[in-house]
Amino acid sequence: MPEAQAIRLAQQGDAAAFERLYRLHSRRVYSLCLRMVGNTAEAEDLTQEAFLQLFRKIATFRGESAFSTWLHRLSVNVVLMRLRKKSGTETSLEEVTEPDEDSGGPRRDFGGPDLRLSGSIDRVNLQRAVDQLPPGYKSVFVLHDVQGYEHNEIAEIMSCSIGNSKSQLHKARMRLRELLHEALRSKAREERKAAGNAGGED
Amino acid sequence: MATMDCNEFLHHLEPWLEGSQHPEARVHLHDCSHCRGLVEDFGALQTAARELSAADPEPPARVWASLRAQLEQEGLIRGGRRTNWLHGLFAPIPRPALAGAYLALLIAAAFAVSGPIHRRVNDYRWIEGNQTSALSAQLDTAEQNTVASFHHANPAVTASLHENLAIVDNYITLCEKSVREDPQNEVARDYLYTAYQQKADLLAQMTDRGDGDYGR
Predict the structure, then answer these.
(1) Is B163 in contact with B118 (CB distance < 8 Å)?
(2) pLDDT of B110
(3) Among A44, A55, A146, whose Cβ lies nearest the Cβ of B53?
């Protein structure tokens, strides 16, 4: 069943159409939630919540935007709402990033010329670093670099400007680079220490 | 050619990563190891991010099961499997492996019809708490019989069905716990019966797909 037909039938309450839409999009939504919260149980809960909101509102979908964009907007909102509740504050997208970096303060010099990430980033390292990003950076990084959305789509999903999406992505990458370099430096220190200990035992 | 400085290069970084390489940016990169490092690292990040995406998992089956139960609860969908499942149980020749569960439902139905609360026959929520344990026990018996007699030429099919059975069993355990904690909670009982329904469906599938006694 094509997506357009599934949407039309779901708007009439057809159970098979709901399931078709779920099967078409659940992997991406679940992945988004998982990358955002880093916890499978919570990601499952958020996926269910996002689809529940979608299906409650599906009768109002008129096709002005792509269905997947609409669904992702709902999903991102569900995730950000959860993160805001957890932090106990009501915050805007701007505030879930790191506003001090927007204030024109001195640029940090990330990483030295001796360290390169190429060939040293594995899935676990990257996810660990992504987990440490502020929610706004994380959303844009996951949507753009992991899920392959374009900035105009992200702007629609996140209700922000295209320029804002680009700026958030750049900051997210810079922060990730810093975190991954730090992880590399820690690893190198540990290896030197271990080598020193081994040498001392000889 | 005048070259740009590092701050100016940052404006060309995103287009550069997407393949649009400005000549002045190229000159700057040639001369600046700092920005070369940045480009290389961002490239490595993009590659790693795409690999992360390739490993994206599917949500577990229980997510759709819970979602569906919630949609049914809210009356948002029609044509549910719940009705089909009951139709299956009331079919003229019930599958042998499900005969026990079928019998338990018939007993429950008889109880409901004669009981003080009149509800629709095709709505299973009327089944009282003491019948859940009977139904659960009957499904366990059905499971033992089905699993014991299940044979399939393709071991992947067997493994997949067993894996799904384990998932549904875990789901049932969680739902039973919720019902035990709050026996009057209709939503919790709804989830439990949906879980039972899933198990019966799965056992029926094993019966249909197996090439053992029940599949013939």
Answers:
(1) no
(2) 41
(3) A146
If you ran DSSP here, which 8-state letter would residue A95 be given? G
- B43 interaction partners in chain A (CB closer than 8 Å): 118
CB A130 within 8 A of CB B34: no
B172 with B195: CB under 8 angstroms? yes
Which residue type does B68 have?
R
| Distance separating alpha carbons of residues A17 and A4, to the nearest angstrom | 10
A15 touches chain B (CB under 8 A): yes
CA distance B26 to B16: 9
How close B62 gets to chain A, by Cα (Å)?
9
Task: Give the per-residue pLDDT at B117.
Answer: 32
Of residues B62, B5, B51, the one with CA closest to residue B28? B5
In B, minimum Cα distance to A129 occurs at B45
With a cut of 70, which residues of chain A have pLDDT below it?
Answer: 88-115, 199-202
Burial of B155 from C-beta contacts in 10 A (0-12 / 13-18 / 19+): exposed
**Cα B2 to chain center, whole Å?**
60
Helices and strands (H, E) in chain A, number of each type: 8, 0
String of DSSP letters for B123-188: -GGG--HHHHHHHHHHHHHHHHHHHHH---S-HHHHHHHHHHHHHHHHHHHHHHHHHHH-TT-HHH
| Interface confidence (ipTM) of the complex | 0.77
Q: Tokens for A120? A: 């040293």
In terms of CA atoms, which chain B residue is nearest residue A165? B14
B49/A146 CB distance under 8 A: yes
| Min distance B55 CA to chain A CA atoms (Å) | 9
A-chain CB neighbours of B46 within 8 Å are 145
A32: amino acid identity, one letter:
L
